[in-house]
Write a structure and sequence with these properties.
2 domains, elongated, mainly alpha, 79 residues, two-stranded antiparallel sheet, 3 helices, 67% helix
Length: 79
């Protein structure tokens, strides 16, 4: 039962953080390093006359690495 409680607390904290980020998003978009997040090297963008394709590969890899690091640090902290 304690494990479920810990899980719900962590899930609630993550949802709270996501809500805070969404609430502050108009202000966060003015940060210069965050403005270029969707235009990293490795992001694929194809523009034609009536067609536009965008795949944020570099951004996805960066976010995956950051989330993996955060999860690793949380697991090490719990031990």
């Amino acid at each position: 039962m304690q494990e479920l409680g810990k899980f719900l607390l962590i899930l609630g904290a993550m949802l709270g953080l996501a809500g805070l980020l969404l609430y502050l998003s108009p202000h966060l978009s003015q940060l210069p390093w965050l403005r270029n997040l969707g235009r990293l090297p490795g992001d694929i963008s194809i523009k034609r006359e009536n067609f536009r394709f965008y795949f944020p590969l570099g951004t996805s890899v960066l976010l995956s690495l950051l989330l993996s690091l955060i999860i690793y640090l949380i697991q090490q902290w719990r031990r």
